[in-house]
Amino acid sequence: MKRWVEDLGAWASSLRFSGFTVLVVVLLAAGAVIVSPSLSTYVQQRREISELRESVRLHQEAVNEIDAERVKWKDPVYVRSQARDRLFYVMPGETQLGVVDDIVLPAESDDETSPELSRLESDWVRGIAVSFLTAGTTAAPPDELAGTQPAPDPDPTAEEPQP
After folding, report:
1. Is the dihedral of CA 136, 139, 143, 148 positive or negative?
2. How far is CA 5 from CA 1, 150, 157, in A?
3. pLDDT digit string (tens) for 1-12?
4. What is the CA angle 13-17-23, rounded to 5?
5. Alpha carbons 56 and 48: distance in angstroms, whole number
6. How does pLDDT run across 59-118, given as a tens digit for each residue?
């Protein structure tokens, strides 16, 4: 180890620096110190610009999706299909079918499923109108309208148990 230190010392003492070399090294070090804040600001701004461009790209994709959805809603066929799917509307003359006991069993089950379909024979608009008019124009007490009867009062003539 001692020999290694001696070799290093001999090498360092053999180096000869001119004044010009020292001046260039000092100027390079000063330039690095002066430029480094500007360089870090530049790198930070480039990163922010790339993040903003990505944000603009994502927002543009969202705008394109909304425009495509708006174009779909201008199509009467699409509006009709959405009314059928979401609101269960039917066209005049069509029959609406309702699924009763819609139970989905796992595929590995041996039980067979047979969904029962029932035909709805009621006019829902008329039913709502009748219900609204009946509720608004009746003089019946609320218990009678709800279809529940009040609980019978205990017999007032019966004797109460004595403690």
Report:
1. negative
2. 7, 108, 120
3. 778 888 887 887
4. 145
5. 12
6. 999 999 999 999 999 999 999 999 888 888 888 888 887 777 767 666 665 555 555 655
84: exposed, middle or buried (Cβ count in 10 Å: 0-12, 13-18, 19+): middle
Long-range own/partner contacts, residues 104-108 (CB < 8 A, 24 or more apart): none
Extract the runs of DSSP E, i.e. beta strands, from the chain: 97-100, 116-119
Per residue in 136-156, pLDDT (tens digit) is 888 877 777 665 444 455 554
Distance CA 106, CA 112 (A): 11
Record the tokens describing residue 151, joined without a space. 């609980």
Kindly list the distances between the CA atom of residue 26 and the CA atoms of 33, 60, 132, in Å, as whole numbers in the listed order.
Answer: 11, 51, 93
Q: Sign of the C-alpha dihedral, residues 80, 81, 82, 86?
A: positive
For residue 117, give both structure tokens. 């379909």
